[in-house]
Every structure is written in C-alpha cells, then in structure tokens.
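Hello, quick one for you while I still have it in my head. Could you read through the record and tell me how the tokens relate to the sequence? No rush at all, and the record is pasted right below.
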Amino acid sequence: MTRSVRGCRGARGAAFGRRHLLSAGGAGMLGLTLPRVLGAASVASLPVRARRVIFLFQWGGPSHLDTFDMKPDAPREIRGPLAPISSVVPGLPVSEHFPEMAKRMDRVTLIHSMTHTMKNHNSAGYYALTGHAPPSDDQRLRDSLDLWPAYGSVVDAVAPRRDEMPTSVSYPYTISDGSITPGQHASFLGKRHDPFFFTENPATEGFRLPQLSLPADLELGRMERRRELQRIIDREAGLLERSADVGGFDAAYDKAIRMLTSARVKEAFDLEAEPAALRDRYGRTTYGQGCLLARRLVEAGVTFVTVYFASSIGGKRIDEGGWDTHGFDNTRMFEIVDKYHHPITDRTLSALLDDLEERGLLDDTLVLWVGEFGRTPKINDAASRDHWPQCYTALLAGGGVKRGFVHGASDAHGMFPARHPVRPEDLAATLYMLMGIDPGTEVHDLTGRPLSIAGRPVTEVIA
C-alpha cells in the first residue's frame, strides 16, 4: 500500500521575511531553523522490528575483498596480501585483521551482492546516504534542494518522535570530497527535519555540546518570554494563518527549547557517565567513542543515529581518513588497512555489538555498516585498489535481520554479483521495512511531485 505525506512549498515558496521573526538563539544554536514540510503523523504500519538504527557510514569505500568477502582461491593480484581466517560461521571467513569480528559473525547478515554504477565518491556517497540514484555520476555533484534527504530526515518526516529527544542525530563530520556530499540533511523536506548535527569530538576529555547549553547571557525565562512575544506578534500579523512555514518554525522553536531544558537529552550525551573500562573496549578514538555515544543515544530514545567514519575519503596518511586508499604509492594501501582501518573497525564494531547484546538492545536495534562502494578486484600498479561500485558488501546486525546469514554472492573474483544483486534503493527499502515504515510511502518534492521513499525490500534477510 502506498501512503502519501504532503509537504509544504519548500524554501522556494517561503511567504514571509525572516525579519518578522524574533531570534532568541536557541533554535539557531540547535540547527533548528525554518521548516519546510510535513507536520505528518507516523505512517509506520508494518511490524516494527528495528525500533532504532545505528548507521555506521564507511566514507571512502572499504574493499570487500579485504574485509568480509575474501577470495582465497583467486590469483594473488585479486586476493591480495591479507589471509582469511575462519569465523564462528562455517564457510564464512573474514580478514585476518578481524579476529574479534570473527567471533561475532553469527550475529550479522552480510549482503555480498551490493551493486550500482556510480564511480565517484560524491555521487556514490549520496546514493548510499539516501537510497536514491544521483542524476549523474559526477564528482562535481553539488548539494541542492532537488536532491534526496538523508535516511534519518525521511524517518523524522514520516515517523517523528513526539517528545524532547531528536528523531535523528548525525556526527562528527560533514563529509565531502572537493565539495560537500549531498544526502546529509533534510533537503526538500525542510530544515525542520534536519538531523541534530554536531562536529565536536566525542573522544575529547570533558566532551560537551555547546548546542545543549544556553549562552551565559541568556536565561531560560528570558528566552521563554521572547517566545511568547513572538507568538503575539505572529498572531496579530496573521502570519500563522497565511504561512505553513511560520507554523513549522513555531514547532522547531518549541523543540529547541524542549531539548535545551531536558535533563534526559543532556544525560544521553554524557559519555563520562560510562565506565572507563567500557570506553576502553570501544577504543578512545573519535570513531570508537562516537559508536559508544550512538549506543547511549538509541538507548535514550533517539530513533536514527548516523556515525561517519571519517570526514575525508582518505588516501593521504596512514593514521587517519576514510577508506580511499588508491592515493598511496607502493604498498601503503595495505599499510593503512593494517595499522588503522581494520584495527579500529574490529575493535569498535565488535564492542558495539557486544554492548547492545548485553543491554538487551540488539534484537530491536539495527546496525548498518556500509560504504559508498567497494574496491577493484584487481590490485593496480601502485599495489592498491581503485573504486568499484559494481560489487561490494553491506553488513547488518540486529533489528530483525537473520544471524549468521549471507545474502547474494559475488563471482569468483568479487567483480560482479553472481546472484541476487541488491541496489542501494533496495537496501533503503529493507531498512525502512524493518523500522515498520512502508517503503512505498511517498513524500513530495519542491514541485509537489509524489516520490516513493525507497525501492524493493530484501525480505530474505529478515528473520
């Protein structure tokens, strides 16, 4: 059944001037500015298996052949220098760099047949973050209100939370490759549905978010008085009756105040409340502490958390950056994999799965680990691998997916899907279906066109 959620006119149709609105600082501090859509009720009508989602986006594109889709029988120029090790699931080897994940593969589903054709990071990244193909495979693809919103923004539009907790949170980077990668905010759905976003490093000592604190010279009572004055001015001017945008701003402002005054919100972001031993298990890295924070946020009620692995695609240093490794010379791709990417991944992902399981959260919390594409099966002349969207792997755990399961398969060299190809829009549909959201739900773009939020779900992975 297709459901439709009607949006407002969007940024191009704003009918009022911002000079008419009072600024009290709170909404702006939280990034909760003028909304453009949807005061929509929830459209979730399917069984809810995943009450929460943690999306671990692996910016730069990890190699499937060097992580979870090893090809030990392929020629050396295909299989690479890393050896496979057995996991707890018979016949499912993983990289030798993943000894901890090898013990936990009975908790995950792997999709070995992810596929699309976008070879540039910005285009492929947008596709992975939204589940919608870009208009072109162009590295110069620019963010625009014509492009699709992030997953979390769609969730906030069609199944929003009704309390002080944000529906969607993303951090700790704005990812880019030359220009900001589209698909990280609400786009045509409107600013009201942007994720609550921050760039503060959760691994820093005394981590706090200034967005959740009032400025020293602004008391809550004064802010609330300004709020009431704004309502009087809006009512007298008739703006609330004439503009849905003003009504949206009204709701965003109220939400900002609720977050600012909520002890529950502040407690959710208090990483120092976690035992030191648990923080050490995750690793005292930005990514490790970001994943621990994700667990705290979903446990506190946030529906959708996006953690970006890195701000850049990588390829410059061996101790930071994303999974893009073909910028290195000689053997440095496998040096960064050995010293940085894989140790962090093995430690943090295994800790997150354990933590969720121990707290009784894994069964209804979906963890999605995936990048924008994979890497070429054949190692290039610089002893590295290039972009390869034609076949790659996604890892899912919890939230209603099968345990110790592999869907689809790549061919003998990991070059193309050998069976059951899965496109990003189908992965998106699976995610929404697990959340109880009909993938056929429609939202409207700036021109009023109804658009389906996703493709066809991969029902085979659902337990």
In short: The radius of gyration is 22 Å. Residues 163 and 258 are 8 Å apart (CA to CA). DSSP finds 13 helices and 18 strands in the chain.
